[in-house]
Amino acid sequence: MLKNKNSSAIVAVKDLDRARAFYSDVLELNLADTSNEGMLGYRTGSTWLTVYQSDFAGTNQANAVSWDVGVELDDIVAGLKAKGVAFEQYDALPHDGDIHTCGALRLAWFKDPDGNVLHLVGATG
Questions:
Q1: Domains and CATH numbers, the chain
Q2: For a Cys staple, 8 with which of 24, 48, 54, 78, CB 3.0–4.6 Å?
Q3: How many CA atoms are closer than 13 Å to the CA of 34, on its beta-carbon side?
């Protein structure tokens, strides 16, 4: 039924202006759609990220959005840290600082201002 359909991510936030500053300025995503009240549409690679205002923002404690960043993981983590982003540490996975390893994958997690978990996936070597 859905195997040939595109998918996208959607993230709930409490303060749309604060979210716009984070997603546009800190993450440097391209704000591509502001036509719907209470929603921001970002083009991220070949997919969409919809950010919308909700009283339930930040209640999801699992990954909300994931980006495959390949070999650029270290540079992206360093760039985000330079902008004040704090990375999560999960003791269940081996990690060296902010980057965790799981087999051939290198992983990093951080949160948006509402506590939504954002995930970066890179490859080893």
A1: 9-123 (3.10.180.10)
A2: 48
A3: 6
**Segments in 5-100 forming alpha helices (H):** 16-20, 73-82
On whether the CB atoms of residues 48 and 8 are closer than 8 A, the answer is yes
Q: What is the pLDDT of residues 46-99, one digit of tens each?
A: 899 999 999 999 888 889 999 999 999 999 999 999 999 999 998 888 888 899
Structure tokens at 7: 């998918």
pTM over 0.85, yes/no:
yes
Is the CA virtual torsion 106, 72, 29, 16 positive or negative?
positive
